[in-house]
Amino acid sequence: MSKVGLVIRELHRGENKLAAQLLHASDRHKVDHEIFHLGRDLARWSQQHVRELARVGHDYDLDLDPEPADDDTIVAALRQKGSELLGGYHTPALLLLRDLRAIHRTAAGVSLDWEILAQTAQALADRELLGTAKHCHPQTLRQLRWANAELKAHAAQIMVAP
Q1: C-alpha 146: how far from its chain's center?
Q2: CA atoms of 149 and 155, how far apart (whole Å)
Q3: What CATH number labels 3-160?
Q4: CA distance 76 to 88
Q5: How far apart are CA 107 and CA 161, in angstroms?
Q6: Region 74-103: what's the mean pLDDT?
Q7: Closest to 111 in 3D by CA, of 2, 15, 42, 41
Q8: Which branch of life, at top level (predicted)?
Q9: Minimal CA–CA distance to 14: which of 150, 124, 148, 109?
Q10: Of the candidates 74, 69, 63, which has an alpha carbon nearest to the alpha carbon of residue 43?
Q11: In angstroms, rounded to a whole number, what is the distance separating the alpha carbons of residues 88 and 72?
């Protein structure tokens, strides 16, 4: 596999993970309407990125699944049950903080990978790949800014509340 293929594959994996984290946080924190609704909207961006990466990956001999990973699998159900059990040891507020931190870290990594892909596409003069990066990367940056803003809005209150 080419080096470019490795980056595309990693981005595909990262976008799938980011979408799943956003949906998981959205489901877990349904009572917070902003987390619920905006989390789902932002997850759709990552799901679209998965489709676009699968499309451009064909040019680099990759056979990536164009459908975002389905979070309704048995593994997801086990993960959700584990989260519910952990909920007995942590307040929902601490779980929100943990979820937002995970989303932020994943979005930051995905953003770096988009930057690597964009620079590579520019060096290769691959207009289609560059166009995909230019379209998707700003949305990932928006996901990152959202997680950061939510962390800033909630962190102090969560950490100092009795």
Answers
A1: 12
A2: 10
A3: 1.20.1260
A4: 19
A5: 28
A6: 71
A7: 15
A8: Bacteria
A9: 109
A10: 69
A11: 23
